[in-house]
Amino acid sequence: MDKKVYSIKDDIFFDKNPEGIFILSPTGETLILDDDVAMIIWQELKDNLSIKTKKLVDKLLVEFKLANSERKDVENDVNRFLAELLNYELVEERNYEL
Question: What is residue 3's predicted lDDT score, i.e. its pLDDT?
């Protein structure tokens, strides 16, 4: 079971356009998400108050019609991407509470 949930920090500015999702980090850097996987993860973070890794992995498996046998690889990729977002201070990580 997931022990952490993730959400976009309240003060993060971002804009979606045909070229991708442009995000302004707290340090003033502009990040561009222009691949489908990153954009789906960001959209899920945007659409949910908080989200668990499992839900993100499930969404990607369905969206890209991947076999459940690829779950571990997808989970690793999602965790790496979330770690990158945390590093840029774009999202926050909290303990999951019922």
Answer: 85
CA end-to-end span of the chain, whole Å? 12
Report the Cα 44 to chain-centroid distance in Å.
Answer: 7
Query: Are residues 51 and 7 in contact, defined by beta-carbon separation less than 8 angstroms?
Result: yes
pLDDT along the chain (98 residues), means of 10: 87 96 96 96 95 96 96 97 97 87
For the domain 4-92, what is the CATH code? 3.90.930
Domain boundaries, the chain: 4-92
pLDDT at 98: 66
* Cβ-proximal residues to 36 (8 Å cutoff; 6+ apart), any chain: 64
Beta-carbon neighbour count of residue 75 at 10 Å? 16
- Sequence letter at residue 83: A
